[in-house]
């Protein structure tokens, strides 16, 4: 196949698009891969569509290889199934809703759990039918508050979503592993730098969950890796290492002290070091327990106040809190009005006295995992201008449970407790494998008969990859300062041939080479335009086909110049050897 | 590739779905190809998706072969471009509209003329860039008032839409012909019975227009063919044969007569034969001119009264009128209130006196093409109980123009005036090629520089095929009384192998045959279920793979039975020859 630049529907741009925030977006627009139609809504021009389709085909290929079966749901969906799972409400503003001419409610599908569950319920009825793995590759829709970075976070985007259906947890484990393996093969084939990290699963009611992230400084996800073992997790899913319980037999009794004008951790620590100096070491923020109170609204409309006790040297990480509370839960820190409504809470001096067992303030109280039995804290005395010292967890106070939402920092100990330290980096989520469990099967009544003729609820796994986001993520992960630089398997062509000069013989030789390579099954981009060599080389570098062949000056010496787009390495190849040489380069 | 029925995600149904109106719908649901989610909204199960993809790939193949380039627009589109062409309004209730979280208006694209026009305007600027042929294969949306017959008229459906862009009309003619030829190849490959008919083009402002119809009794389109020449046209687009002008030198002067109680053509003709008998032949309905008045509302909100004068033996065909008036124009016959508002119009006795040149009634007056100069008519005298006789067209009255909207009948003369007669039949529109002209380029300002550096407006062609409708249309066109019966190129598999009995050897032989055929590149459906032969044969007939191989009783004699699904013809083929035999059958 030959793509001739004289007729290919592409125009490269010299100027960066005004709205481009990240390099991949800038280059995909400038190189003529995509065009913006509305915020988060893009047209795929021929070059972009070629890359998208190559990614889709790799995904399809590996899904088919494990025996998953492709089907295709509508994107325009009736409301009813989403009511049954309460997601019509839970999604809030983040889905597109519409009505038909008769006033019936529809949505544009953001994910299809309901549809997958219902079609299996419709067709299958016996354990003998399981396991079943089905998938689709389809346009999905989310009305993002902040569509971002071109196709990286679009409002219309392509997803491959698979679901597994099993009779029991052991089956789910096998289905999960098969999909995880297929995903690993997919990402290996895509040919760029990725990492598999543990992901938060709790909020959706499932158990095991991992994400495939493309490494990229512009990524929206932060993940950590251990510098010693293979632990890696999305920052939302990091389990903080809890210290062992501490003996507290010799701990003094808790005692409230006057600490005027110490509503912040910094002022408190200064005050402690000045008025209550310790012999062995100065007070520091980590000795204090900070109790942060949030106003929380659940998807069902109920509200509550939630206090979180964390060491004073940490902050509550909003993303970690969001992922722990789950989809559709909205929260914000207590404001003046909230405090006014609960006079028991002394702002700046809140302590377990108001939050703990007897709950005079009527607030749910969750503690950071580091607050283990026997640890000793300075914390609010529930009176303005006063703190309690030597308050011992498990002796003097306890919470209603644990919540692990403090910020994660470089240098934090690895939860595997092997002496390794965590290091953070950023990535783009490209895939997600997830043990969904029985949430949707329960809500929609997906049961089958087991071996004993008893109805049992099916357990499901959910496995997603975003091919359109992958185009941007791979671009972002592989580009360099002069342009896009595609991995071979997803490049819009195998070879980019540039004919330079005005000599007829040059164009004839370039045309012949294009045809010969095409005849050998290669996809050739051939720059047959009447343009200057400078323009053609710049375009070739911008478009990012991995191998660039120059047919020009060298022709009199009987050679073509073959350049590797990434390394920049150039080789003169005799005309007679060029086809075999290039086929070998492309096929590896 | 082997599709094993023991694990394939399919369940055949014995019962017809309650809402199925046509055979293809009934069978596609029963055989497990599609499932309904909402009116006009369907899920493609694996079998259905295979057929859909095969059709899409044939279409893509032939589009690529003529040098058309594929791209992909979003389905979720901003309102603005559709405002610029007024289609946001014109579409009325028939598109899905929605708003995003910021209140901005969007629609789900029903067709993409605006987007194609704008992307070319964005990228191209010179005549040197033309001709350009671009296309996409994509989900489209229409909020049909009456979604019908499953996927035959869905609300979410797949379209391949191409557009050509040319600098002049000669270029458009070449682009049109290339697409018409490609379509002919596509429909030939799809392997079913179709007809190419002239289509109505006027309403959309274009010129040449043809449709590709699948012959099917359940089709929504009626077309006619000449029994002598190759004339074929959608009934909406049939040009009625206008007689030659008639000499009227010896015609008597027009004279009004009393015709009490003759408000209908029948009563009038009876009255004429009784009171004003002719010597040569009796009066008949075709001697009278019937003036039918409509109240018309245009998309821009303006209204008018429109009278149509047609021979009394014809009716105004609402579909023909609709297609002549154009998209978004709404009309209904004058009611009592309308007549009350225009007392000049004597209901039942309306004539050119009130409608013609001086327009006392203020009504636009269009005439059937048969009302040529010199023809002599009996028509209303604009006074209740009175008609005019010997009213000569061109002498005594004229209209504001011609409109060809009378019903077309079997036996009408062919417009080619070759003595041939028209015969009607029904079909399903599957493709449309259309010279769109400059309507969208004008509205959206698509101009390029010509050879002389002058800006000229580009002329466009529009070419559509509906792959999802094609699944239903091909099914409808090819099914028989026992099930689906696919043409080879679109069948979900090449061969359907049925293993019968409980003998291990049978299943081993069937498995081996499946693998051998798969290794030769055939797609095999293999019924490896533990079910009765009766169930398996019924399913094979229902599913409709063109070749059915039975591995069973014959095995002891060393033969498989090969059956042609359409003809029912059976052949015993020796086991050793089976692979070659079947490859030959499939490859033709």
Automatic annotation (TrEMBL), chains A, B:
It comes from Nocardioides islandensis. InterPro entries: aa-tRNA-synt_IIb, aa-tRNA-synth_II, aa-tRNA-synth_II/BPL/LPL, Anticodon-bd, Anticodon-bd_dom_sf, Pro-tRNA-ligase_IIa, Pro-tRNA-synth_IIa_bac-type, Pro-tRNA-Synthase_IIa_type1. The lineage of its organism: Bacteria, Bacillati, Actinomycetota, Actinomycetes, Propionibacteriales. It catalyses: tRNA(Pro) + L-proline + ATP = L-prolyl-tRNA(Pro) + AMP + diphosphate. The keyword Ligase applies. GO terms for cellular component: cytosol. Pfam families: HGTP_anticodon, tRNA-synt_2b, tRNA_edit. This is Proline--tRNA ligase. Belongs to the class-II aminoacyl-tRNA synthetase family. ProS type 1 subfamily. It is found in: Cytoplasm. Catalyzes the attachment of proline to tRNA(Pro) in a two-step reaction: proline is first activated by ATP to form Pro-AMP and then transferred to the acceptor end of tRNA(Pro). As ProRS can inadvertently accommodate and process non-cognate amino acids such as alanine and cysteine, to avoid such errors it has two additional distinct editing activities against alanine. One activity is designated as 'pretransfer' editing and involves the tRNA(Pro)-independent hydrolysis of activated Ala-AMP. Keywords: Aminoacyl-tRNA synthetase, ATP-binding, Cytoplasm, Ligase, Nucleotide-binding, Protein biosynthesis. GO terms for biological process: prolyl-tRNA aminoacylation. Residues 40-487 form the Aminoacyl-transfer RNA synthetases class-II family profile domain. GO terms for molecular function: aminoacyl-tRNA deacylase activity; ATP binding; proline-tRNA ligase activity. It is an enzyme of class 6 (ligase). HAMAP family: Pro_tRNA_synth_type1 (MF_01569). It comes from the Bacteria. Homodimer. Its EC number is 6.1.1.15. Consists of three domains: the N-terminal catalytic domain, the editing domain and the C-terminal anticodon-binding domain.
């Amino acid at each position: 196949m030959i793509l001739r630049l004289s007729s290919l529907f592409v125009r490269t741009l010299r100027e960066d698009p005004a709205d481009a925030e990240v390099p991949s977006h800038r280059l995909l627009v400038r190189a003529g891969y995509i065009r913006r139609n509305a915020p988060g809504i893009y047209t795929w021009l021929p070059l972009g569509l070629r890359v998208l389709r190559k990614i889709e085909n790799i995904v399809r290929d590996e899904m088919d290889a494990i025996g998953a079966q492709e089907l295709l749901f509508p994107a325009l969906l009736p409301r009813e199934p989403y009511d049954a799972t309460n997601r019509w409400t839970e999604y809030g503003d983040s889905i597109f809703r519409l009505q038909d001419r008769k006033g019936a409610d529809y949505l544009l599908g953001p994910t299809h759990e309901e549809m997958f569950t219902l079609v299996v319920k419709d067709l299958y009825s016996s354990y003998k039918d399981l396991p079943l793995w089905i998938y689709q590759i389809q346009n999905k829709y989310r009305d993002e508050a902040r569509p971002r970075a071109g196709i990286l976070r679009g409002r219309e985007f392509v997803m491959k979503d698979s679901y597994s259906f099993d009779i029991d947890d052991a089956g789910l484990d096998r289905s999960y592993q098969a999909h995880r393996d297929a995903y690993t093969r997919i990402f290996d084939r895509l040919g760029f730098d990725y990492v598999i990290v543990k992901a938060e699963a709790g909020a959706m009611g499932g158990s095991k969950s991992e994400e495939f992230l493309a490494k990229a400084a512009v990524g929206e996800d932060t993940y950590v890796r251990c510098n010693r073992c293979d632990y890696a997790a999305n920052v939302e899913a990091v389990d903080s290492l809890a210290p062992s319980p501490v003996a507290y037999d010799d701990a003094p009794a808790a005692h409230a002290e006057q600490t005027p004008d110490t509503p912040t951790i910094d002022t408190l620590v200064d005050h402690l070091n000045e008025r209550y100096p310790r012999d062995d070491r100065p007070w520091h923020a980590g000795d204090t327990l900070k109790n942060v109170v949030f106003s929380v609204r659940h998807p069902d409309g109920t509200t509550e106040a939630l206090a979180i006790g964390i060491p004073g040297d940490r902050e509550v990480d909003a993303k970690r809190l969001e992922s722990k509370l789950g989809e559709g839960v909205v929260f914000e820190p207590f404001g003046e009005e909230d405090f006014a409504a609960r006079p028991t809470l002394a702002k700046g001096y809140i302590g377990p006295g108001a939050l703990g067992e007897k709950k005079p303030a009527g607030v749910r109280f969750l503690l950071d995992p580091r607050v283990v039995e026997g640890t000793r804290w300075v914390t609010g005395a529930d009176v303005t201008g006063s703190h309690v010292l030597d308050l011992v967890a498990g002796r003097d106070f306890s919470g209603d449970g644990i919540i692990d939402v403090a910020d994660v920092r470089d240098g934090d100990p690895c939860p595997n407790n092997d002496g390794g330290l965590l290091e953070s980096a950023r990535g783009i989520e490209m895939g997600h494998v997830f043990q969904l469990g029985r949430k949707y099967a329960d809500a929609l009544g997906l049961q089958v008969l087991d071996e004993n003729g008893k109805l049992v609820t099916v357990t499901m796994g959910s496995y997603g990859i975003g091919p359109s986001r992958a185009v941007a993520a791979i671009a972002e992960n592989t580009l360099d300062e002069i342009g896009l630089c595609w991995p071979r398997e997803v490049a819009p062509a195998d070879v980019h041939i540039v004919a330079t000069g005005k000599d007829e013989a040059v164009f004839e030789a370039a045309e012949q080479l294009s045809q010969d390579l095409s005849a050998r099954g290669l996809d050739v981009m051939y720059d047959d335009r009447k343009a200057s060599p400078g323009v053609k080389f710049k375009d070739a570098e911008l478009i990012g086909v991995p191998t660039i062949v120059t047919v020009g000056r060298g022709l009199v010496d009987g050679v073509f110049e073959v350049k590797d787009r990434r390394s920049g390495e150039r080789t003169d190849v005799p005309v007679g050897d060029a086809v075999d040489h290039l086929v070998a380069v492309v096929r590896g």
